[in-house]
Write a structure and sequence with these properties.
By secondary structure, the protein is of the alpha/beta class. Helix content is about 40%, strand content about 20%. The protein has 15 helices and 17 strands. Bound molecules: adenosine-5'-diphosphate. The site of adenosine-5'-diphosphate has 18 residues, from helix 2, strand 9, strand 11 and helix 9.
């Protein structure tokens, strides 16, 4: 009898928990559907990331959105930086009431082309979000993505919470078809280490890095025009080159930027023609050309400073050990690595970078190449042990490739005409 009751209770309990699990799954599926319906009205989604707060991520997001708007696009700017939603302040929109539109949150208009929504509009107190627990924050962020009535947009620029923790991770996971990320850093050593984390975060999520912007890079005296490197300049650029992602440019520290931000005036609009506004526009240029590239049917090779588009196509990075520009069989002692990014569906080369190989050290190459985003290595020969080490890092190894120049090998690989010969292993 006792046994029966226990099993019955167990049965009732498990079926009610199963029901609530099924309900939850149903709700989640519905939410996903609503989210993807909302996001399907937006052509390009660009995320703005930084390794930590205070480096100018929101300033870049605002000026990127404005630059896209000036180019005639319909743009949305979404601020999900839950701990420091500074977009309303940067645009002078603090305290603006938020309305409803067909059961969704209506974004606030800024000028003719820009619609803005910030978590800051909904917080009664600036510090409200600090007391929210993790799931509550995620609920708010999800609702934000799903329930803002953007209508049709060409671009949505999303200002993410800083870092590579749970919050930015969840946003990136929710926006499955994001077109890429812009990473903002300052030149100091520590900030640059954070960029490395951001780049590996993007790679783990298969999110394209559109480029790195080094903000607060040097100070130009407004009186004498002399440039002073307050923090060492060039750290972000070095890191971008090392990890083979595009470097978009440096923006100096400019008191006019601070003043404009404090007064809620979009900097690039108010100080058009200044050196810093020019630096901003140069850095954002490749992102403004995303559409051009998408529309262009021509296969193209892009330089490290340009951005290419692989919307809805699979991209991957192929590493080839070279000497004198050609594949060398001695992969462990090669002079350089050609790192070639390709679109496997369009079968075209998107970007090529040649990197000096690191000092010879057993076991180093798999992690060195994984850090630079390689998915495949095409080599002349390689022993099984080395192949296993690459496999552990998620890098596929193709052996027996001929000694041709790297681009020809990649083209042959994409067109499935690569003649793989014997695995001539020198290790
Ligand atoms: P984040 O979003 O990374 O926390 P913000 O964009 O809010 O950073 O910028 C932090 C502060 O730094 C703001 O007060 C902004 O005015 C200022 N700032 C950003 N970039 C520059 C720059 N290049 N020169 C001077 N001040 C800047």
């Amino acid at each position: 009898m006792v046994q029966e009751q226990t099993s019955e209770r167990g049965g009732v309990g498990s079926s009610s928990s199963e029901r609530s699990m099924t309900n939850r799954r149903g709700e989640e599926a519905q939410e996903r559907q609503q989210l993807s319906a909302r996001l399907s009205q937006i052509r390009y989604k660009i995320l703005v990331l930084s390794g930590k707060g205070g480096v100018g991520k929101s300033t870049v997001a605002v000026n990127l959105a404005l630059a896209l708007g000036r180019a005639g696009h319909r743009v949305g700017l979404l601020d999900v930086d839950i701990h420091g939603p500074s977009i309303p302040k940067l645009l002078g929109l603090e305290g603006k009431p938020v309305g409803m539109e067909e059961e969704a949150i209506a974004p606030v208009s800024f000028g003719e082309h820009l619609k803005v929504m910030s978590i800051g509009f909904l917080l009664r107190q600036r510090d409200d979000a600090l007391i929210w627990r993790g799931p509550m924050k995620m609920g708010v962020i999800k609702q934000f993505l799903k329930d803002v009535a953007w209508g049709q947009l060409d671009y949505l620029v999303i200002d993410l919470p800083p870092g590579t923790g749970d919050e930015p991770l969840s946003v990136c996971q929710l926006i499955e078809d994001a077109d890429g990320a812009v990473i903002v850093t300052t030149p100091q050593e520590l900030a640059v280490i954070d960029v490395r984390k951001c780049i590996s975060f993007c790679r783990q999520l298969n999110l394209r890095v559109l480029g790195v912007i080094e903000n607060m890079s040097g100070f130009v005296c407004p009186h004498c025009g002399e440039a002073t490197e307050i923090f060492k300049r060039g750290g972000g650029e070095r890191m971008a080159r090392e990890l083979a992602v595009p470097f978009l440019g440096c923006i100096p520290i400019d008191p006019q930027i601070t003043a404009a931000c404090d007064e809620g005036k979009p900097f690039v609009d108010y100080f058009a023609g200044s050196e810093s506004a020019g630096a901003f526009e140069r850095a954002l240029g490749p992102i403004l050309r995303l559409e051009e590239r998408d529309l262009s049917a021509q296969p193209q090779t892009t330089s490290i400073t340009e951005v290419s588009k692989s919307k809805e196509h699979k991209t991957m990075r192929i590493a080839i050990p070279t000497a004198g520009g050609k594949l060398t069989a001695h992969f462990g002692h090669c002079e350089q690595f050609a790192l070639i990014e390709v679109d496997t569906e369009k079968k075209e080369i998107l970007q090529k970078e040649v990197l000096d190989s690191p000092p010879h050290q057993p076991g180093l190459l798999p992690s060195w190449l994984a850090e630079r985003g390689a998915n495949v290595i095409i080599a002349g020969g390689m022993g099984q042990r080395a192949q296993n080490l690459f496999a552990e890092k998620g890098i596929e190894v193709i052996v027996g490739a001929p000694s041709l120049d790297a681009e020809t090998i990649v083209e042959n690989y994409l067109n499935e005409t690569l003649q793989a010969g014997e695995n001539i292993c020198d290790h």
